[in-house]
Amino acid sequence: MLAEQQPLLRTKGLTRRFGGLVAVSDLDLEIRPREILGLIGPNGAGKSTTFNLISGFYKPSAGELFVFGENCTGRSPLAISRLGLVRTFQHGSLMRSMTVGDNILLGTIYGVRGSAQRRARVAETAEMLGLTAYLAEEAGNLPHGLQRLVSIGIAFAARPKLLCLDEPLTGLNQTEVANTLAVLERIRDEFGCSVLLVEHNMKAVMRVCDRIVVLHHGQHLATGTPSEIRADQKVIEAYLGHRHEH
Length: 246
Fold this sequence. Notes:
Keywords: ATP-binding, Nucleotide-binding, Transport. The chain is built from 9 helices and 10 strands.
């Protein structure tokens, strides 16, 4: 198999137990080069646990994790991020009292050598996210939608091969959602970066994702294109009663 065709990330039988509760059970998942993959499911489906497993924040109870072809089962979050997998956190990861520029600069610490190169990387990242006008502003003073973009900017400043976003659209209005989705498409199209999107906003997921993985009660329920997932009877049944949330 050619390197380009190998999945960037693959899990085999990934399982995580908390005491008697099996939060994720026997999950096989793969993320391919240059794709936006959505991870969805009703509340309590195991999305956050899966996200924490693949970024190294939880160690699996069973199963294996391969990142860029390397067996990363049980490796630390830092070791995994240095390979090129960077994640955001649900409630943002920005430093509120620092400027937008200094926040994005934090993201360049491991990936970029030399202060001139770092400044150039900050400028390029800000331009792509539409944040150039806000570089000198304190991040905590920005509207919520722009703070969300700053969090993505910090993660993307390292130019990862795989960017994992934990509910980046929460609390955004329709215009901000559309802007953020356009940013994700640019990240994929212009930088060849794959994106894993854990998200509740079903409309947005259907609009931007190349493929979607559906979890239910910690287990894999379905994988497919947005149109395949929309028509999947198992998925429709899992979401009945959850419709009002979306």
